[in-house]
Structure formats: structure tokens, C-alpha cells
Amino acid sequence: MSTIKVIGIDLGKSSFHLVAHDYHGRELFRKHLSRAKLIEFLAQTPATIIAMESCGGSHWLARKCQSLGHQVKLIPPQYVKPYVKTNKNDYIDADAIAEASTRPSMRFVGVKTETSQVISVIQRIRSSYVKERTACMSRIGSMLLEFGISFPKGHGKMKSLFQWLADNKEPIPRMLMQELIEHHEYYLQLNERIAGQDKKLKQLVEQNEDAQLLKSIPGVGDLTASQCLAALLQCSISLVFECDQAT
User: Fold this and answer.
1) From which residue to which does any coiled coil extend (predicted)?
2) Does residue 38 share a domain with residue 11?
């Protein structure tokens, strides 16, 4: 039987700091490994608990650890802070993560599936396009206001910008018109990209029975259904893995 109870890992972009505790809470070893060496080390380590903070890259590594037979505990970073001793460094952080994971009252984060993470990426990209589109509309409005033209808000007016300007019959400097044309083309491109992200989410929803069931609720569309689907997939894999560990 392995003497390792838990291995705390402080995650980095290309390097990782590990601290292992035994069943009495004593430190067994500490290591500093590259990404490739970390996977090799975990593959050779008997099944144990792997504890990490829930952050960028943690869900991918958690799935990799699970595939190697380890039990993974992801901890929200704010719950690890009280266990950090003395001055903060990578090994101290790894030690605090390992200690925090053994507390009976600790709360953990479910490991996301690959599909759940992909859905989140699509949603984040869509959200960034929406924010940039809003900024683009604001810039067009502010440019016109600089020349005494108060442009109405809303996508309906923005899509027919030049027809509105023609009806308004206000003189527009030629160079300003060129800027408006280029910026309006950018606005239309953002609309197309948002529509592309919406199409991806719709396809994911159509391929999942649970998401289709969610869409039957009045007021729930593809975006909300896809968000719920990502959460459902995360909960499902967490429950399955917990059951496997229990048996």
C-alpha cells in the first residue's frame, strides 16, 4: 500500500510544484516538474488523491489524472489561502493545497468534461464578440456626435446606418464617411461571427436530449440551454467518478 495520502500540485504554465503528504499529514517529498515529466510521474505513482486549485488548465490535468486512476479534488483558490504558511511561494502553495484537501468541511469543484469546456470556450468567444460589437456601435455613435449628429441607439438603426444618414440629410465629411464605412463593415463582421457562435451552440443543443428538454421550458433558448448543458455534463462526470471511487 502506498504511504502517499495526497499530492498537492501548484499549477504553472509549463512547470509544476508538488508536495506529498502521508496519512499523518507529514510531508513525504516535494518536486518541481515540467508538464511532460509531471504526466510521467503521475503515471508511475500508485492511485492516490491529487489536489489542485481550480484555475486555468486544472480541468484538463484533472481529467488526465482520473484517466491514470487517481482521485482528483479541485479547490476554489479562496479556500486555500487560510492554509498558506509563512511567505508565499510555489512549494508553500502546493503544501497548502494538499492540507486544505484533507479538511472534512472543504468544498470542491466538479471536474469539467471536454465537451463542457468546449461549450464554455464557445460562449466566452461569443461574449467577447458581443462586447466588441457594443463598443463598435458606441464608437460610431460618438464619431457622429463629434460632428453634431445624434445617432439613435439599437441594431435596427445601426444596420441601416447609411440610409439613416441619407434621410437625415446632414453633410458628412468625405474622410469621416470612409471611417464610418470601414467601422460599419467591422460591425457587420461581428454580427456574422456572433451568428456563427450561435450556430455552434444550437448544434450542440440539438445533439443532446437533456438540452432539448430544457428548451421546452418557456423562455429558454439555445444560449441558456447550452449553459445548462455545460453544467449538467460537469455534474454528471463528478457523480460518476465519486460513485466509482466509493465502490
Assistant:
1) 187-214
2) yes
What residues pair up with 210 in beta bridges, in sequence order? none
Examine residue 178 and state whether it is found in any structural domain, yes or no. yes
Last residue of a domain, one of 87, 111, 135: 111
Domain closes at, from 76, 111, 146:
111
211 grid coordinates:
438540452
Domain containing 83 — which CATH number?
Answer: 3.30.420.10
- Nine-digit cell at 26? 507529514
Local confidence pLDDT in tens for the 247 residues of the chain:
469 999 999 999 899 999 999 999 999 999 999 999 999 999 999 999 999 999 888 999 999 999 999 999 999 999 999 999 878 899 999 999 999 999 999 999 989 888 888 888 999 999 999 999 999 999 999 999 999 999 999 999 999 999 999 998 888 899 999 999 999 999 999 999 999 999 998 888 887 777 777 777 787 787 788 778 777 666 544 444 344 444 4
What is this structure's pTM? 0.76
Q: Which domain holds residue 118?
A: 114-235
The residue type found at 106 is M
Q: How far apart are CA 205 and CA 209, in angstroms?
A: 8
The single residue listed with the C-alpha cell 486512476 is 69
Question: CA 47, 49, 53: angle at the middle one, nearest 5?
Answer: 140
Closest CA to 99 of 30, 32, 5, 12: 5
Contact 94, 8 (CB under 8 A): yes
Q: Are 162 and 184 in contact (CB under 8 A)?
A: yes
